[in-house]
Specification:
Spore Coat Polysaccharide Biosynthesis Protein SpsA, Chain A; alpha/beta; 7 strands
């Protein structure tokens, strides 16, 4: 626990057998109360290794997609009575050593959500981020900041934390099951007035680290721009979208 808050790490996993042990070993277990992994129908030994590590593991018999995987992670974290939920990819691209710092920003009521930015500190390219991804990241972030009138350093990191209050109130079940889920969730967090903070985080790019193809990246980019426009239209009352509707379908935490 941290400041009396129960901390849970959730790991949406797909074919993570080569990196799961390393990721798990660097989690600060002194402050983390529970670790939950959801295996999205992996074709390797991810589930076996997770259970060997005594990680609470849920298995999708059919692949539900990156967003669908997160929905299960967050739902089970709420059911476990978590106060702070941190999403950490088990591919070791992001360092687990920042968990304490990230959790503290929520535990001490400074922010409601925190993202780990690869852009702050100018470490993205040094960490091996492909140039085309870096350029796309900067372009999409600039456009989003302009459209929704926010000022984040990036919107596309997969390392993030939320208070249980955020997860209980966002209509997450209205979101995509694909990669754009991350972006939809972050924009929802800001749309509904929650405080979002950032920490600088180095990221590693290597063969075992998960990555999406150029084609999927383009689909994601288009989805990001569409989400930003939905935010814009919803804020001004021009149109109602389910992902920004406070009565939209939420996680079942019972």
């Amino acid at each position: 626990m941290l400041n009396g808050k129960r901390v849970t790490v959730v790991m949406p996993a797909y074919n993570a057998e080569k990196t799961l042990r390393k990721t798990h070993s660097e989690i600060p277990h002194d402050i983390v109360d529970k670790i939950i992994l959801t295996d999205d129908a992996s074709q390797d030994r991810t589930t076996d290794i997770a259970r060997q590590l005594n990680i609470k593991t849920f298995v999708h018999m059919k692949n539900k997609g990156y967003g669908g995987n997160q929905k299960t992670c967050y739902q089970e974290a709420l059911r476990a009575g978590s106060d702070i939920i941190i999403m950490l990819h088990p591919d070791y691209q992001y360092t687990p050593k920042l968990i304490t710092s990230i959790a503290a920003m929520i535990a001490y009521d400074i922010f409601d959500a925190v993202i780990a930015s690869r852009i702050l500190g100018n470490k993205a390219l040094k960490g091996g981020m492909p140039v085309y991804k870096y350029i796309a990241n900067r372009f999409l972030t600039a456009v989003e900041n302009f459209i929704i009138q926010q000022k984040l350093s990036e919107y596309h990191t997969g390392y993030r934390a939320f208070s249980s209050k955020v997860l209980e109130n966002l209509p997450l079940m209205e979101n995509s099951d694909d990669f754009v889920f991350d972006n939809e969730m972050l924009l929802q967090t800001m749309y509904f007035g929650f405080r979002v903070g950032e920490v600088s985080c180095p990221a590693k790019y290597f063969e075992e680290a998960s990555s999406i193809s150029f084609r999927r990246s383009v689909i994601y980019g288009v989805g990001v721009l569409k989400t930003a426009m939905k935010y814009f239209y919803s804020k001004r009352g021009y149109k109602d979208y389910s992902i920004f509707n406070p009565n939209g379908k939420k996680l079942d935490s019972r």
